[in-house]
């Protein structure tokens, strides 16, 4: 079987080809402003490789769901599934070698980032026995690996950026070949873009994007103006899987159609009749209708069942879980979470990565694939970072502390509960370095800012004695730490 696929034609003559085997080892970056033919290029690549390699498509706009009709891709509607289910789906699609389109249409940016991160995390953490080659296409990559913080939450940005970094930096050894497409190179995180060795640069107009494109292609700055003159569907190609010198190619035709094709210019003929009465007519009075109750249809198979049966030759037996005492189950979950935090420098890993490790350990312990959802995990993570033991965590006074913490942003809850536990036990106030470790950073300056922010929110009160030692009092609980050296 040949590993070369035809992408179109070289401007000036000859077919334009791409070495698929080389692409799987070196990754690809596609850049082009809206309307440059970027999605058309991705569709051409997916169609040409649909029967050659397993594919996973992160689709924020639902453009690629039509591939399911031609190539039997499984379309997963991310809005209908939890992050835990999508994390399991990412693992199962590699185990069963099924091509998947993750449709993120209809979700806001925050939810798109979290669900995409969960799915990519499942693909990344699959056991070594299932490290088969997978072409992972991420459209609108600047949404999932932004160069700067935007309107989304810090947790969503960290999880998504971490997953994209893993895909492009560490995915090759796991068989994951990243193909990322973006409208704006300037908005894409540099450490993600820098890992690509192949480039297809389309039409772009902004100076900052042209400068970055020319730098990646090794062109002089004065040559960057050429990107403004590229026609729709025309790209400059460079890389070991494409050409050793910048070569302009024109992408060929595709056989499947996008659901969100751009508008088509058609003759416009204004209406001849008066339209004021039609447009400004009063709204009809709402009618109260009593609809007959419809019989409830049986629920559709869940996502895990679909993945397990999609293209699989053998049926997988379901594990039957033994009933577990709720108190014992909580103790086991707390012990597993503490192990995750202690091992492999877990305190400095993002919550999404810790959550994936936690779920794997829960499965090994026989606690089920979905032992805890992401929201409950974040609350449990904050409690675990506080250092409180399982028995004290059930006490009414600690439950009151957790109720106060629940009103704070999730990334600060662990610090607040750690201070609360220290104050309750009458221990010395932790140092800036210790607070930074609980927050998941090495920056003592950030730790001091977190303390100042908690004081502004009337969660704690900071006091310094004459020797420069700090005390922290917890507002509403009456707990206060002993004096401690902030720089210890």
Automatic annotation (TrEMBL):
InterPro entries: ATPase_Atu1862_pred (IPR014588), HerA-like (IPR008571), HerA_central (IPR002789), P-loop_NTPase (IPR027417). SUPFAM superfamilies: P-loop containing nucleoside triphosphate hydrolases (SSF52540). Residues 5-79 form the Helicase HerA central domain. It holds the Pfam family DUF87. This is DUF87 domain-containing protein. It comes from Acetobacter estunensis. The lineage of its organism: Bacteria, Pseudomonadati, Pseudomonadota, Alphaproteobacteria, Acetobacterales.
């Amino acid at each position: 079987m040949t590993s070369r696929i035809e992408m179109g034609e070289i401007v000036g003559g000859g077919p334009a080809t791409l070495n698929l085997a080389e692409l799987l080892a070196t990754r690809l970056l596609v850049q082009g402003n809206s309307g440059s033919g970027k999605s058309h290029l991705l569709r051409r690549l997916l169609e040409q490789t649909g029967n050659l390699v397993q594919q996973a498509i992160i689709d924020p706009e639902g453009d690629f769901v039509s591939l399911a009709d031609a190539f039997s891709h499984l379309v997963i509607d991310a809005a209908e599934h939890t992050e835990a289910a999508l994390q399991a789906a990412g693992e199962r699609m590699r185990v069963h070698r099924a091509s998947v389109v993750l449709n993120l249409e209809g979700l806001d940016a925050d939810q798109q980032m979290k669900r995409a991160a969960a799915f990519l995390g499942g693909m990344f953490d699959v056991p070594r026995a299932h490290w088969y080659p997978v072409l992972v296409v991420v459209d609108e990559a600047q949404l999932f690996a932004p160069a700067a913080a935007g309107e989304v939450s810090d947790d969503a940005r960290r999880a998504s950026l971490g997953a994209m970094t893993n895909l492009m930096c560490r995915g090759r050894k796991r068989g994951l070949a990243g193909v990322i497409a973006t409208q704006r190179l300037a908005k894409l995180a540099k450490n993600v873009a820098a890992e690509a060795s192949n480039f297809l640069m389309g039409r772009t107009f902004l100076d900052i994007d042209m400068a970055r494109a020319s730098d990646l292609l090794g062109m002089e700055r004065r040559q960057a103006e050429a990107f403004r003159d590229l026609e729709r569907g025309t790209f400059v190609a460079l890389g070991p899987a494409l050409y050793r010198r910048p070569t302009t190619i024109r992408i060929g035709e595709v056989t499947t159609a996008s659901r969100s094709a751009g508008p088509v210019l058609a003759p416009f003929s204004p209406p001849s009749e008066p339209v004021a009465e039609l447009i400004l007519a009063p709204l009809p009075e709402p009618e109260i209708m009593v609809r007959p109750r419809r019989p409830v249809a049986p629920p559709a198979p869940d996502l895990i069942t679909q993945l397990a049966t999609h293209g699989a030759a053998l049926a997988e037996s379901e594990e039957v879980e033994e009933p577990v005492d709720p108190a014992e189950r909580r103790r086991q979950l707390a012990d597993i979470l503490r192990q995750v935090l202690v091992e492999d420098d877990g305190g400095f890993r993002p919550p999404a990565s810790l959550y994936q490790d936690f779920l794997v350990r829960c499965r090994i312990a026989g606690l089920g694939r979905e032992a805890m959802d992401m929201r409950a995990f974040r609350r449990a993570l904050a409690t675990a970072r506080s250092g409180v033991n399982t028995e004290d965590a059930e006490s009414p006074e600690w439950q009151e502390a957790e109720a106060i913490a629940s009103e704070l942003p999730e990334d600060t809850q662990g610090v607040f509960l750690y201070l609360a536990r220290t104050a309750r036990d009458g221990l010395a106030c932790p140092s800036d370095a210790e607070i930074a470790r609980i927050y998941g950073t090495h920056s003592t300056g950030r730790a001091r800012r977190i303390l100042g922010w908690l004081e502004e929110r009337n969660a704690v009160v900071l006091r310094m004695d004459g020797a420069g030692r700090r005390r922290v009092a917890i507002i509403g609980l009456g707990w206060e730490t002993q004096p401690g050296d902030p720089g210890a």
